[in-house]
Amino acid sequence: MKKVCNFSAGPSMLPQKVLVSIQSKLANWDGIGSSVMEISHRSKEFLMIVSDAEKALRTLLSIPDDYHVVYCQGGARAQFAAVPMNLLGNNTSADYIDTGFWANSAAQEAKKYCTPNIVKVLATVDGKRTVLPAKSWKLSSDAAYIHFCSNETIDGIEIRDLPETNKPIVADMSSTILSRPIDVSKYGVIYASAQKNIGIAGITLVIIHDDLLGKAKTFLPSVLNYTTLVDKKSMFNTPPTFSWYLAGEIYKWLLAQGGVEAIHMKNEKKAALLYDCVDTSNFYLNNIHETNRSLMNIPFQLTNSELESSFLVNAQAQYLVGLKGHRNVGGIRASIYNAMLLEGVQSLVDYMKTFAKDHT
Ligand SMILES: *Cc1c(COP(=O)(O)O)cnc(C)c1O
């Protein structure tokens, strides 16, 4: 069987090594005579998986001791509702930095619970889309927190600077978590759904500063209440055990490769290879300014958009899959998360060059 190179935005590619390893243990995990999917989430075996996973994640991201690590369900979209309901307290407003599709979706959901101050930060410089520097963001004085999306998965826009503020910063890191080092201490809450860089769909990682607990609305469903999640160690209801287990395997795989710093260097190389291919041709186009180009999700267009479907069909025939742009924006998108190897990006670039040559 030829292994495909999967550029899907999520659920996305998993490291081959992890797949093979979990397969070998699937029916009989660690010699216990049953699979990890069949054991109680309260069994000592599963609790060990949980504590090893947390240790690995804390090492990878240098998470300070005054932050809690919990897992929730309902994806990042559930967090769009959980964040305001957990953090507003007596405030009726929060700042929502509008950088694209996902940040805007979070703001729309927040409207059910407060009056979000939607901060416009997108601009066009030299004909390219960019995000204004964080120090120029028009933040309001009565906001309970500042919400932003670190990496716009659909738009291919990444934000690397943070505003100077004493308000809690809440970040949707679904498509960038673990791709580069971050300073967790600068954030109040970090959340990320798992099916991009953490593992498979089913769980959502939430990292919360201790000061932000205890402010939840009384009507908030308990399954989304951060204080309940912390108190019950993410086991208020039965957690998706296999997704959690897999996250732990991915964390260990990252550590074995030298951690987030090492994977970041690889990610820079991969992205540079692809952006360079786009920029040095007249055939392809990415209109995001260099300062905000995403490392993980690289959208591009064909200057002759009529060739798009042929580009996708031929790519598929060469085992390069998942390249169709999001239905809202069209075009092509290559998601090159941590599990994507440099060789995979090289195959795509080789294909792009050949396709361009054959069609000019
Ligand atoms: C994928 C994604 C989401 C949505 O995640 P779900 O798990 O489907 O709710 C939200 N935000 C960002 C930045 C994403 O990449």
From TrEMBL:
The modification N6-(pyridoxal phosphate)lysine is found at K196. L-glutamate binds at R42. Its cofactor is pyridoxal 5'-phosphate. Pyridoxal 5'-phosphate binds at A76, R77, W102, T153, D172, Q195, N237, T238. It is an enzyme of class 2 (transferase). Pathway: Amino-acid biosynthesis; L-serine biosynthesis; L-serine from 3-phospho-D-glycerate: step 2/3; Cofactor biosynthesis; pyridoxine 5'-phosphate biosynthesis; pyridoxine 5'-phosphate from D-erythrose 4-phosphate: step 3/5. The keyword Lyase does not apply. The keyword Oxidoreductase does not apply. It catalyses: O-phospho-L-serine + 2-oxoglutarate = 3-phosphooxypyruvate + L-glutamate; 4-(phosphooxy)-L-threonine + 2-oxoglutarate = (R)-3-hydroxy-2-oxo-4-phosphooxybutanoate + L-glutamate. HAMAP family: SerC_aminotrans_5. Catalyzes the reversible conversion of 3-phosphohydroxypyruvate to phosphoserine and of 3-hydroxy-2-oxo-4-phosphonooxybutanoate to phosphohydroxythreonine. This is Phosphoserine aminotransferase. It comes from Candidatus Enterovibrio altilux. The gene is serC.
